[in-house]
Amino acid sequence: MRPVNRGPRPTDDTKNQLKVFGGYGDAREDLINRLGRYCCYCNTRLTHAPEIDHVKPKSLHRHLETDWNNLLLCCKSCNTSKGTQEIDHLFRPDRDNTGRILSVDHGALVPHPSLGDDERKEVSALLTVFNLNGMPRSIGDSRLDDLNKAQVTAQRHQRSFNDGKLDVSDICNIATQIGFWLAWYQEFANHPDVLNALNHAFPGTALECFAPDGTTVARPNGRC
Ligand SMILES: [Zn+2]
């Protein structure tokens, strides 16, 4: 799960003041500009109009319905699975370094091997919220299948990269077309130049979550 930073509330250039969103849908274009067309939870690339997720559910936090800092982009499957569930006590991609909590294993998302027992439980609970824990999925939910394909593609391109047939910008172009940041980040773990380039190529990656060599570090003010 890519850690993201949506940045400060956008300004209205014509009025030179902070934007006030009449409805949360009005924030969609600004969120796309900041975060790219990717689901902030499963990291699938969004080919249709992204859905808007209220990190803190709007039905339980009415005053946050149009709050810039409560909005993220997501896919229909993640949005439907999350529903009105809270994740604030677990991990949030816009607050924590969610780049260090998961591994991709043959298309399955599993807690990162470096985590302790308590963190692993929280990650498992987070995957359950989004129905990304490998349990039976609804018809049309291709998130984990697509993740598996992305991982296989990343592995193949990593071999081509090692053979000198692809360069860093090739990898970034392909990765941003396919999505699933973690699949790429994981496969190129031994290539700091690729990791840094990937983090810059995906819009809105929280760069404060990474050391100069591309490895993850604890996020300031985050839970991990
Ligand atoms: Zn999703």
Short synopsis of the structure:
With 224 residues, this protein is an alpha+beta fold.
Describe the strand arrangement of the main beta sheet, using strand numbers: 1-2
Residue stretches low in confidence (pLDDT < 50, at least 5 long) are none
Gyration radius (Cα, Å) is: 17 Å
Shape: globular
- The span between the termini is 13 Å
The count of strands amounts to 6
Specify the helix fraction band. 25-40%
Sketch the topology as an H/E string, one letter per element: EEHEEHEEHHHHH
Strand count, sense and barrel status of the largest sheet are:
2 strands, antiparallel
How large is the count of helical segments? 7
Q: Output mean pLDDT.
A: 95
How many structural domains are formed by the residues?
1
Bound molecules: zinc ion
* Binned strand content: 5-15%
State the secondary-structure class. Answer: alpha+beta
Overview of this protein structure:
The protein is of the alpha+beta class and 224 residues long. It has one domain (11-209). The chain is built from 7 helices and 6 strands; from the N terminus they run ββαββαββααααα. The protein has helices at 28-35, 76-82, 117-129, 143-162, 168-178, 181-187, 192-201; strands spanning 11-12, 17-18, 51-54, 71-74, 102-105, 108-111. The chain has a two-stranded antiparallel sheet with strand order 1-2. Helix 4 (143-162) packs antiparallel against helix 5 (168-178). The longest helix has 20 residues, at 143-162. The radius of gyration is 17 Å and the shape is globular. The structure holds zinc ion. Residues 39, 41-42, 44, 74-75, 77-78, 143 line the site of zinc ion. Zinc ion is lined by residues 39, 41-42, 44, 74-75, 77-78, 143.
